[in-house]
């Protein structure tokens, strides 16, 4: 290491890319050789340790990042342990005089940055944390009273009017990275958790983690799905969404990049569709800003009166929901898609979340935890925000009295049954008119379709009308009810 000039360290976090990365650009602009590293942080809160789906994605993304750095004659250094300790050790080994990284906004990451800055300062080493994962920096977007926005529409109206059109930062060239780095670990050898929750062996056929996969997903979306996005995004049997969420979560592409390409390279007849998708990027930003200002909402409701919501923590019902055995085909299709692919269509996520919280009155935290374990795009702010929106207890939430009828939702958004037939094949032979409510079909007609309720497919866990009435009563009485445990 002594033959090279004194290096700086670039610490990758949830920004696994090389282009349009302000902190990496600043590290390169320092003129010092850059040692790129990633730390599998074993000191982060265990309650939010990556789930199996996230671990699978991260392994692939780190492998892709390592190859991109190798093309520029560098080496990605991967180590595991406490981030503060690992970085301090690297500084001692390399003599690095500065550490650069992107800001992260989860509560524990903000605390980590504060502790790390103080610790490195005592060593005479500078810590440079720069924005990189969002379009707008939390804390900079405030209403006229100087307070955080709590309603999405005015938040996005404010942000949309200031959407930047600045030049995207280039990736480092050959020679920017240090020629030598200390020894590290093989990121692809990082084990999955000892769990058989998901058959991840064939996920490589469905997903391409890494920056190249992100660019391919964006290109597919622009050319194949953007036109008609406003309507098609709600149809689960149609490839009408971007599927960019895991790439955005892991920072394989910047949201600024996505927004800029959308506005400059999209077909000219898609203005309404573009605006709708930009608003979806805005919803992602909104949830991140909320978590920044209200860090308790990862596990506690945004609205205080929901702390006394009389949930019914029914473990058996929860297990049936997780397994896709509720007896409601659109719900079961979604839960099975999740298990098989690490993903669930957004419209179906809302239907499944509504069923758990409002038909079964199971705490929203249980569902959020399961999604955290099983989604490749598991993101704390979006996951918690989405579940609270459905449960009615979040900022700018769906009204608590809005209770999706899963039968009507299935008929509306999967009218020909293509989605349900794919994920619930035991119902494939049912006619369209009965597919979303098989219990309404006469036993003889069910038998002709090889369906025996209670044997080949379950009876409904609950009756919709009864469950709806019970949910409305529980929500109405929440202010005077004792608080049920959220876990």
Automatic annotation (TrEMBL):
InterPro entries: Crypto/Photolyase_FAD-like_sf (IPR036134), Crypto/Photolyase_N_sf (IPR036155), Cryptochr/Photolyase_FAD-bd (IPR005101), Cryptochrome/DNA_photolyase_1 (IPR002081), DNA_photolyase_1_CS_C (IPR018394), DNA_photolyase_N (IPR006050), Rossmann-like_a/b/a_fold (IPR014729). FAD binds at residues 229, 241-245, 277, 377-379. GO terms for molecular function: deoxyribodipyrimidine photo-lyase activity; DNA binding; FAD binding. Keywords: Chromophore, FAD, Flavoprotein, Lyase. GO terms for biological process: photoreactive repair; response to light stimulus. The record marks 311, 364, 387 as: Electron transfer via tryptophanyl radical. Its cofactor is FAD; (6R)-5,10-methylene-5,6,7,8-tetrahydrofolate. It comes from Pseudohalioglobus lutimaris. Residues 6-135 form the Photolyase/cryptochrome alpha/beta domain. Involved in repair of UV radiation-induced DNA damage. Catalyzes the light-dependent monomerization (300-600 nm) of cyclobutyl pyrimidine dimers (in cis-syn configuration), which are formed between adjacent bases on the same DNA strand upon exposure to ultraviolet radiation. Transmembrane segments: none annotated. This is Deoxyribodipyrimidine photo-lyase. Belongs to the DNA photolyase family. Its EC number is 4.1.99.3. Binds 1 FAD per subunit. It catalyses: cyclobutadipyrimidine (in DNA) = 2 pyrimidine residues (in DNA). It is an enzyme of class 4 (lyase).
